[in-house]
Amino acid sequence: MTAPEDAIRARRRLTNKLTAAHEAARLRPFLDPGVKVIVGHGGLIAGADAVIAAFEAQFRDPEFVAYVRTPDTVELDRAGLRAAESGRWVGSWRTAEMSGTYLAAWRKATGQWLIESELFVTLDG
């Protein structure tokens, strides 16, 4: 059986690959339907549909390359049903780059880890 921390790190690697491949629709199974994302400039995106739409819009930008999130820590609650992932993120465009820190809240639902919320703070770029 895969340890929860390893499962979350594996799911994060998959979201990075899907983002680099510009495959917004394939990100949906990683998101809680009510997901909330605070983006690097402080704006809020609420709901899986809105998050997917935001990725689709980003992917239409011919200069956009990818977002990569690199976890430093994954901590679980005592019940093993929620987790906090924290680390660094980098957004790349052909001529620019932005980066900072992030925190993601995951919850286990029907045997899968789903992103419940994410907070991104832009520190550079």
- Report the major sheet: 6 strands, mixed
Give unreliable regions as ranges: none
How many individual β-strands? Answer: 6
Query: What helical percentage do the residues reach?
Result: 10-25%
Tally of helical segments: 2
Structural class: alpha+beta
In percent terms, what proportion of residues is strand? over 45%
Q: What is the level 1 CATH name?
A: Alpha Beta
Shape: globular
Order of helices and strands: HEEHEEEE
Average pLDDT: 96
Distance between the termini: 40 Å
**Computed CA radius of gyration, to the nearest angstrom:** 14 Å
Strand order, sheet with most strands: 2-1-6-5-4-3
Question: Would you identify the CATH architecture?
Answer: Roll
Provide the domain count.
Answer: 1
Instruction: From the 3D structure, determine the CATH topology.
Output: Nuclear Transport Factor 2, Chain: A
Structure explained in plain terms:
The protein is of the alpha+beta class and 125 residues long. The chain has a single domain, classed as Nuclear Transport Factor 2, Chain: A. The chain has 2 helices and 6 strands; from the N terminus they run αββαββββ. It has a 6-stranded mixed beta sheet, covered by helices on one side. The longest helix has 17 residues.
